[in-house]
Write a structure and sequence with these properties.
- With about 425 residues, the chain is α+β, with helices and mostly antiparallel strands.
- It has 2 domains: about 200 residues, no CATH class; about 180 residues, no CATH class.
- Helices cover about 55% and strands about 15% of the residues.
- The protein has a 6-stranded mixed beta barrel with strand order 2-3-8-5-7-6, surrounded by 4 helices.
- Helix 2 packs across helix 13 and helix 2 runs antiparallel to helix 14.
Length: about 425
């Protein structure tokens, strides 16, 4: 039977007798794990921030009604011309509103779908923003402030004011920071809109928002749905867009296709709308994990080299152990124990080092006009990363100690003593 107390005692004596080498080996694990934790927490936090920046502005499914030419023209219904080859020039879209037909019943129907988390209506229209002699073309979106705040985290992007301010105002508007900057406007000022009907409407600025996406900040504004319906002189059931969030984003493509087929509407899923962005995120994640794993592997090779040299220096000790009755497997366990002790100590110190560095980064100021609501560098302190770190420390040190320990196990004590 293996006497673990004796084996661990000998392993500890070997490690302490070569204290500097032991410290170097442990520091190799410590800095490897610490660098891994710091890098993966920072990079995944950064990726998550960039993802939210884009994805908060993009629903899982966007449903709208696009005016387009009819797929079948009247000439194709003439039986006498069916077998002929017909050429039609300058096809024009039919006169049709951008509204979603029966939008309110459709919302009720979609909300009953167990895969759908929420459905938020919007009314969009093109306008001109006017302040003095300055005019800027843009888009005003009618929203339900409370639903939109929960749906797209709108409040996270508001510099001054809040979605509640818009809810409490009958004539208020949330204005993009780019528009406000160009027109030298601030909260409390009034801005005039030239509507599609060429009417002039004055609204009070109750808040400014900034998403960090210039295309949005320089053109977009929000007001209540009822106000945009009033601008367009439309009834309360006039809805131009439905934004849908799902319980499982992976189902977006399938559900979007079902909605488009069943209700004859345009339905664009988030993967289609952000195909290039998704590709960039995947590449960034691959680079992050590749570099992190490389750091751990390099630390493992360092441990292997140190243990290998330790065995050469301990040849006499190994011969004495075997001559006094220790078996080859006992010797192997002694050196494996040394490797695992280094892995445990170095791994724990590495986790503490990584945690300290991530907390330091998390408190480091990060100020940029593109992301006004972000005040410090983003960190994703996911416990899974720490679990992976300590498991990899143990696994790498186990492998690093395995080959040297097998070599120690097979050493012939007679040849060593005779050589001495």
């Amino acid at each position: 039977m293996i006497n673990w107390s004796v084996i661990l005692s000998i392993a500890k004596t070997h490690l302490l007798s070569r204290f500097k080498q032991t410290v170097v080996a442990a520091l190799g694990v410590t800095f490897g794990i610490g660098s891994y934790i710091t890098l993966v927490c920072f990079m995944t936090g950064l990726n998550r921030m960039l993802d939210s920046l884009i994805l908060n502005q993009t629903p899982h499914i966007h449903v709208f009604n696009e005016v387009e030419p009819s797929k079948k023209q009247p000439i194709t219904y003439d039986k006498a011309l069916v077998s002929g080859f017909n050429i039609i020039h300058s096809i024009k879209p039919k006169q049709n509103q951008l509204r979603i037909t029966n939008a309110l019943p459709l919302m009720q129907y979609l909300n009953k779908n167990p895969d759908i988390l929420s459905v938020v209506p919007q009314v969009k229209t093109q306008v001109f923003y006017k302040s003095g002699a300055t005019e800027i073309s843009g888009l005003i979106i009618g929203i339900d402030p409370l639903k939109e705040s929960r749906f797209s985290n709108l409040d996270d992007y508001i510099l001054n004011g809040s979605s509640q301010s818009l809810l409490n105002s009958s004539n208020g508007i949330l204005l993009g920071s780019g528009i406000a900057k160009k027109m030298v406007l601030q909260v409390g000022d009034r801005i005039q809109l030239i509507t599609p009907g060429n009417e002039l409407l004055s609204l009070k600025i109750v808040g400014l928002f900034q998403t960090g996406i210039a295309e949005i900040d320089d053109s977009r504004s929000y007001t209540k749905i009822s106000k945009v319906q009033q601008i367009l002189m439309q009834p309360k059931n006039y809805i131009t867009d439905l934004n849908i969030n799902l319980k499982d984003i992976q189902q977006a493509s399938r559900i979007a296709q079902e909605i488009a087929t069943q209700h004859h509407l345009n339905a664009v899923d988030i993967n289609t709308a952000n195909a290039q962005f998704e590709t960039g995120t995947t590449i960034r994640n691959l680079i992050t994990y590749a570099v992190s794993i490389t750091l751990l592997i390099v630390a493992g090779f360092g441990i292997y080299n140190i243990l290998n040299m330790l065995i050469y220096e301990k040849m006499n000790d190994i011969a004495i152990l075997k001559a006094t009755g220790f078996s080859g497997i006992d010797v192997q366990y002694i050196f494996m124990s040394q490797a695992l002790i280094i892995g445990i100590v170095g791994g724990i110190l590495g986790l503490l080092l990584g945690l300290g560095l991530t907390l330091l980064i998390d408190q480091t100021p990060f100020n940029t006009e593109a992301l006004p609501t972000i005040t410090t560098y983003p960190i994703n302190n996911n416990p899974v990363f720490y679990l992976i770190g300590i498991l990899f420390a143990l696994f790498s040190t186990f492998l690093a100690g395995l080959l040297p320990s097998i070599k120690a196990k097979n050493i012939d004590p007679v040849s060593i003593i005779r050589g001495q």
